[in-house]
Amino acid sequence: MSLPSSVRIVEVGPRDGLQNEKQSINVADKVRLIDDLSAAGLSYIEVGSFVSPKWVPQMAGSAELFAQIQQLPGVTYAALAPNLKGFDGALAAGVREVAVFAAASEAFSQKNINCSIGESLERFVPLMEAAKQHGIRVRGYVSCVLGCPYEGTIAPAQVADVARELYNMGCYEISLGDTIGAGTAGETRRLIEVVGSKVPRNKLAGHFHDTYGQALANIYASLLEGIEVFDSSVAGLGGCPYAKGATGNVATEDVLYLLNGLGIETAIDLDKLIAAGQRICTVLGRESGSHVARALSRLQTKELTAQKTR
Question: What is this enzyme's EC (predicted)?
Fold first, then answer.
């Protein structure tokens, strides 16, 4: 299959990237991050999550975020809404698109949201009805599609069943998440073949963590299978609090560098994106998780040193 001419990147850094941080991050820094991402040309930004702060403390204040960010025309500013209460909160904050999540692993579902896969899907029924009533689009996530920290290998058919349920329920797009980042390119292609028999491929997205360094390979494999939407996190921020050992999402900078090299259009400015990642990493007191950002930073440092010695 030929590569797509364009790809849509779903930036999940402000939500999935920051939700696992232990240190407190103030609203002003989150607003700056989101505005920086908008300025870099991201067309879809997952801003926050309307979940109980008891479970995910970093997502407290998501309504305040939506009130303060600069919402540019043509950019989708979305939020996670795990249930009807969360949806009502998102609606009150003026959110026009929400995401729901289910797991392909029974054990992970119990650890993450304290219910079975079937029960989690049942919870979405009233949310989907309310979303339809208010004209709110809903995106679906399926986690642990290429492995579970508790169950190990997950059958692609099991992933396909959950994805089909979410699609039939009304989710316009289903993001397939390699939560523990253990998947390989061959496994990714087989997964898409199976899930693609139940859900149209143009309704699927890839969400890869880079725990084993396989995220970019899995994205390329997905491109070959006709997938044109990928989730990523600026500076490689993130990790799942319910998946021990899972490191950050693949860095948006690295994905963009790959796509640029393949001649695939995204309309994202790499320099501005790197600057956005460096700024939030300064706030967090850490180095960027992006290979591309680190490499270009070292190159710039060498060039500056060379200029001073001339």
Answer: 4.1.3.4
Integer-rounded Cα radius of gyration of the chain: 19
Single pTM value for the model: 0.93
| DSSP H/E element including 49 | strand 44-49
Q: Output phi, psi for 180, to 5 deg.
A: -100, 0
- For residues 193 and 225, give the distance between their C-alpha atoms in angstroms, rounded to a whole number: 8
Evaluate whether the domain defined by 8-309 bears CATH number 3.20.20.70: yes
**Residues tagged active-site:** 240
Q: Which of 189, 130, 131, 192 is nearest to 163 (CA)?
A: 192
Q: Give the domain ranges of the chain.
A: 8-309
Q: Which amino acid is at 243?
A: A
Which residues, at least 6 apart from 307, have a Cβ–Cβ distance to it below 8 Å?
none
Q: What are 268-288's pLDDT values in tens digits?
A: 999 999 999 999 999 999 899
- Left, alpha or beta for 45 (phi > 0: left; psi -120 to 50: alpha)? beta
Pairing assessment for the beta strands 137-143 and 173-178 based on DSSP bridges: parallel
Asked if 162 contacts 127 with a C-beta cutoff of 8 angstroms, the reply is no
Rounded CA-CA distance 22/135 in Å is 35
